[in-house]
Design goal:
- Helix content is 33%, strand content 18%.
- The chain is α+β, with helices and mostly antiparallel strands.
- The chain has two domains: 60 residues; 181 residues, Alpha-Beta Complex (Sulfite Oxidase, Chain A, domain 2), CATH 3.90.420.10.
- It has a five-stranded mixed sheet. Strands 3, 4, 7, 8 and 9 form a five-stranded antiparallel sheet that branches.
- A hairpin with a 5-residue loop joins β3 and β4.
- The termini are far apart.
- The relative contact order is 0.11.
Length: 307
């Protein structure tokens, strides 16, 4: 005869009532197994599990719906953050592109072409470079001498002429005395070198536009090209050539040009960088076609390097 179980029996739950002990044993976090097989009370409690699981699923679905709503509400903000972060890294991405050999040359050429295009449209003949008082001049002995090849290419001043050709009515060889007969002007302007130095100098000569008028140049042409005694070469767009501060220069500091500064004739263009201001001129041509652009430009430097 089996002995009577000394533990008190739990009353059977009414309909809709869950046995707390049984419910506790069904919680996911419960670690202790039930002490014995489910009693009839536990079995009856089990009949309520589908409803409890259904309730949990409803809560989960509700949470999922709420999560979707939150995500939808945050989407515009996320997009704004994404765009903002993308803008922050764009310079880095662009810089990284320059490290790719196959892309580097193309990017540099496109960037330089855009810079020249913009500079050409911003240039105005009526816009003058700054001028300075005599007290602000850099002393001639401190005016840095820069050259392409040599300080003195050995020009023979007695036989020197400027050979003129191209779209002009009066081609030929012009002596320095003929050029000096044109109206003279002097200007104190800044000379800026691409290497990073600059000085304020005093330059004298005649406007290039005066000389173009004398030779009957077609000023609707695109370019002026010049050749030099040291084999340097350069070109100017017509707007720069006609600018009132662009000089055919034969003086510095009210004295004739010295050999190291470009005698007997050089360009002075205060609206442009120094390498546009060719020295030791020997030839000038008016043209619509450039076989060569300029010594430094043909090596990748800017054509319209305005100041």
């Amino acid at each position: 005869m089996e002995s009577e179980d000394p533990r008190p029996r739990m009353p059977k739950p009414d309909a809709g009532e869950v046995n707390p002990a049984a419910a506790e044993s069904e919680r996911p976090g419960s670690q202790e197994p039930p002490p014995h097989e489910p009693s009839s009370a536990a079995a009856e409690t089990a009949s309520f599990r589908p409803r409890l699981e259904s309730n949990d699923s409803t809560e989960q679905r509700q949470r999922r719906r709420e999560s979707k709503i939150v995500r939808a509400m945050n989407q515009p903000q996320f997009s704004r953050v994404s765009r903002r972060e993308l803008l922050k890294v764009m310079p880095v991405l662009a810089l990284g592109a320059f490290a790719i050999p196959g892309v580097q040359d193309s990017l540099l050429k496109r960037g330089l072409a855009f810079s020249d295009w913009a500079s050409a449209r911003l240039f105005r003949r009526e816009h003058l470079a700054p001028t300075f008082a005599d007290s602000e001049l850099t002393p001639l002995e401190k005016f840095f001498v820069n050259d392409y090849d040599v300080d003195d290419p050995g020009v023979n001043f007695e036989t020197w002429t400027l050979a003129v050709s191209g779209l002009v009515q009066k081609p030929g060889d012009y002596k320095l005395e003929q050029i000096q007969a044109l109206p003279r002007m002097r200007q104190n302007t800044r000379h800026v070198c691409v290497e990073g130095w600059d000085v304020i100098g005093r330059f004298g000569g005649t406007r290039l536009s005066n000389f173009l008028g004398m030779i009957g140049a077609d000023t609707s042409a695109g370019f002026i090209t010049v050749a030099c005694a040291d084999d340097y070469y350069e070109s100017l767009d017509m707007a720069t050539a006609l600018h009132p501060q662009t000089l055919l220069c034969w003086e510095m500091y009210d004295r004739p040009l010295t050999r190291e500064h470009g005698a007997p004739l050089r360009l002075n263009i205060p609206t442009k960088i120094g390498y546009k201001q060719a020295k030791y001129l020997t030839a000038l041509k008016v043209t619509n076609l450039l076989d060569k652009v300029g010594y430094w430009e043909d090596q990748g430097y800017s054509y319209y390097y305005g100041l």
